[in-house]
Amino acid sequence: MTVLxxxxxxxxxxxxxxxxxxxxxSSPQYGAxxxxxxxxxxxxxxxxxxxxxxxxxxxxxxxxxxxxxFFSKNITTGIAVAHARGVIMLACQKAGIICYEFKPPQVxxxxxxxxxxxxxxxxxxxxxxxxxxxxxxxxxAADGLALAxxxxxxxxxxxxxxxx
Length: 164
Description:
By secondary structure, this protein is of the alpha/beta class. The protein has a single domain (2-163), classed as Ribonuclease H-like superfamily/Ribonuclease H (Nucleotidyltransferase, domain 5), CATH 3.30.420. Helices cover 52% and strands 23% of the residues. It is built from five helices and five strands, in the order E-E-E-H-E-H-E-H-H-H. Helix 1 packs parallel to helix 2. It starts with a strand and ends with a helix.
């Protein structure tokens, strides 16, 4: 199976793509969609939609994994991220790709084995699990890879339990 993990945002949308077969990961690819800060929000959202559409057409993932919205103290940032999530989910729907959502503790649990793991631990384990030479940059891309790992593990376990 192939999974595209997406860390949503308006300024930066991190993404990570992995092949998962027999509990092994291969062919990791990652990057980020960056939007300029001084243009209107609706233009930035359009850029995210367009760039993600191209990425989905190129990579043809079986599934997409996206981080659930997590509100911290800055509600304004959370609302902007919600807008980005909306266009990301719409792009997936238009491409006919199933989109799964995961909470940050679920991603940490899947990658590190501990739901309260530090960000640095998640990044190091992502590097190890994917046999990368260095931690992916920007951080948002590493988060996208971690989301892809989480989804692949979750779907892999669901398929395993169905077979038994």
